[in-house]
Design a protein that fits this description.
This protein has 362 residues and is α+β, with helices and mostly antiparallel strands. The protein contains eight helices and nine strands. Helix 3 crosses helix 4. It is elongated.
Length: 362
């Protein structure tokens, strides 16, 4: 800028001529300073910026955790029940019905003795259903010579047989299993012979022991604690020989009992545990000699714990007074609550003397 232009600039500034530059105010200088310190396009005072959506990470994590929990419950229901049982093995969450073969034995329970007030304490059966409710049946579909409604009826009657044979209070007291026998084909000669021998002999053999089908205690020796028997098991079915509907029952019964002569509040309680596998054939009457509403027995097997380890008597004989006595030389040990394995008919639990297996728990 030349000297002339500079002098003219000074005169115009002093005189306040139009267009002369003005010194910014203190507020303006402060605004300029803030803008220099915060670069970028300033936001207008009437402008609006929509809020950025928040990421829902928490919901995703919660959903993943819930899926894992459901998977664990589905794969290990017994163990999950044990976590929430309250620690006494008596109450807690009821176990869901058995809809398929278990993959492993039930989880360990607190080592607590059963009592008259809590006969299932310390046992996996504390979480099982009572009586017939623990025996589940699958949906009925037309099979063999039966339509769906007839299959449903066969499943119902198969369960009726198990109830009459293993849960009827009179049968448990040693009376004749009349209702159960009424469901058996009267023309099946081998079974009818077995029934006559088993229910009339005072010294049955292993092949004619009524316990193979019926649960019985001598009332003068043993009495049931309470009025509930715990059960767990299920029915399955398929088409059998000659178009018959073949129903297989695999059920475990747990009977809490005490000595009939011990009526004190501290009476010893023993659990007799019985697992039966029975195959029943509901035959086509046009092909097999049978009667309406009856079925043919294909096979039946028994595995029991605390039911007697001597010669068969036709009744369960709980080992009162021996709860703490385990023979150390016994190599064959069984878990009576393990339903993941096939029923073991050769473990010696109904045999005599030292051949008896040792239960790992009761």
């Amino acid at each position: 800028m030349s000297d002339e232009e500079w002098e003219r600039f000074l005169r115009d500034s002093v005189a306040g001529a139009a267009g002369a530059p003005m010194e910014p105010s203190a507020r303006a200088r402060e605004v300029q300073r803030r803008l220099r310190e915060r670069p970028g396009q300033p936001e207008g005072w009437r402008t609006y910026s929509p809020a950025r959506p928040r990421r829902r990470t928490g919901w995703y994590v919660a959903g993943l955790v819930a899926a894992v929990v459901l998977l664990v419950v589905g794969l290990f229901p017994q163990q999950v029940v044990g976590w929430f049982s309250g620690g006494d093995g008596q109450g807690g969450v009821p176990l869901a019905a058995e809809s398929q073969s278990p993959q492993e034995a039930p989880g360990a329970e607190p080592a607590l003795r059963p009592t008259l007030a809590e006969p299932f304490r310390g046992s996996p059966a504390a979480h099982w259903a009572d009586g017939a409710a623990g025996i589940t049946a699958p949906p009925a579909k037309a099979t063999g010579w039966m339509n769906a409604a007839q299959v449903k009826g066969a499943l119902r009657q198969s369960r009726d047989f198990l109830v009459a044979a293993g849960l009827d209070a009179r049968v448990l007291r040693g009376e004749r299993p009349t209702k159960a026998i009424a469901l058996l084909n009267p023309h099946q000669n081998d079974v009818q012979k077995y029934l006559r021998t088993a229910l009339s002999s005072s010294a049955p053999t292993g092949a004619t022991d009524p316990l193979l089908l019926f649960s019985r205690f001598r009332p003068e020796q043993t009495r049931l604690v309470g009025d509930q028997v715990k059960t767990r098991g299920r029915l399955t079915y398929r088409e059998g020989s000659l178009g018959a509907v073949e129903v297989t029952a695999d059920v475990t019964f747990v009977y809490p009992v005490t000595s009939a002569g011990d009526s004190g509040p501290d009476a010893e309680v023993v659990r007799t545990i019985v697992r039966r596998k029975i195959v029943m054939s509901w035959d086509d009457p046009s092909k097999v000699d049978t009667e309406p509403g009856t079925m043919t027995l294909v096979s039946y097997a028994l595995d029991m714990t605390n039911g007697g380890c001597s010669a068969p008597t036709g009744y369960f004989v709980p080992p009162f007074g021996t709860a703490d006595k385990q023979r150390a030389d016994q190599a064959h040990r069984v878990d009576p609550y393990d339903r993941s394995k096939p029923i073991d008919t050769g473990d010696g639990t109904t045999a005599t003397g030292a051949d008896c297996a040792t239960a790992t728990r009761s």
